[in-house]
Fold this sequence. Notes:
With 350 residues, the chain is of the alpha/beta class. The chain has 2 domains: 8-175, Thiamin diphosphate (ThDP)-binding fold, Pyr/PP domains (Rossmann fold); 194-324, 3-Layer(aba) Sandwich (Rossmann fold), CATH 3.40.50.920. 32% of the residues lie in helices and 15% in strands. The chain has a 7-stranded mixed sheet, sandwiched between helices. Strands 7-9-8-11-12 form a 5-stranded mixed sheet, with helices on both faces.
Amino acid sequence: xxxxxxxxxxxxxxxxxxxxxxxxxxxxxxxxxxxxxxxxxxxxxxxxxxxxxxxxxxxxxxxxxxxxxxxxxxxxxxxxxxxxxxxxxxxxxxxxxxxxxxxxxxxxxxxxxxxxxxxxxxxxxxxxxxxxxxxxxxxxxxxxxxxxxxxxxxxxxxxxxxxxxxxxxxxxxxxxxxxxxxxxxxxxxxxxxxxxxxxxxxxxxxxxxxxxxxxxxxxxxxxxxxxxxxxxxxxxxxxxxxxxxxxxxxxxxxxxxxxxxxxxxxxxxxxxxxxxxxxxxxxxxxxxxxxxxxxxxxxxxxxxxxxxxxxxxxxxxxxxxxxxxxxxxxxxxxxxxxxxxxxxxxxxxx
Length: 350
């Protein structure tokens, strides 16, 4: 088992503290970064440790603040921007797409833009259409951007440090249901890569997942193991670049694949992976590749309208059973009392 007891939010905090200490010129800012909740606890005490000139709260002006970060980065000042919601970053898309992502290419590689943009995403607690979106594919479609989306605490720390010291812009996505997660609650050993990780080996089906859905994948694996279906779980922590070779190696072994995607169906991460699978393994699998995504609708605000909206381990189990043409008694698989919170510890809305 993992010896480390640090949870996801503390790993983010530790990575930021390490980076601020290593680079004395680095700055870190975002809306609510110094408030009592300190962005889910991820920026707690950083201002006290490193001073308000380096870690500071900002007004709600995402486009301007991202532009300032681009200017600072060009001048050699490493910057971490944090958005309490991915949705808020849409106001700064011009700066991200037309400035940060393009700068290195426009100046022959002589100028870099070392910016890391943390974006919190996630469902539930009445977040509704404009506070719950996973728009990762939008950023993956932009040349010049890297897009990371870790699930586990150890990955989060290592990957955030790597992002901060990357000379080019990185989009760093965090699901708000993960911040209290400790790796030892789910993993038997530390991940060994900063790209896709095979976190649980199997021989019958490759289950590719990302972020919070990786936890649902691991739950489904335990249930399906009881009827002799042994799943291999691949956790996508790097959406761009995508380690397709590791994914294909796993699929060649199992000859079946199911992809879990926190985003929408069209132009999604899962559709990109499906395209690569068909391109490389067309006609060589026992069953057609399948993906589970969110439906192509804005997420409702109502607790009752979202009740059966999300992908969970029960939906995963049902899908796998269909793939194998098997059945099992699912009556004992009870859903949690409240479907829109990860546990009793979660107090929301932020």
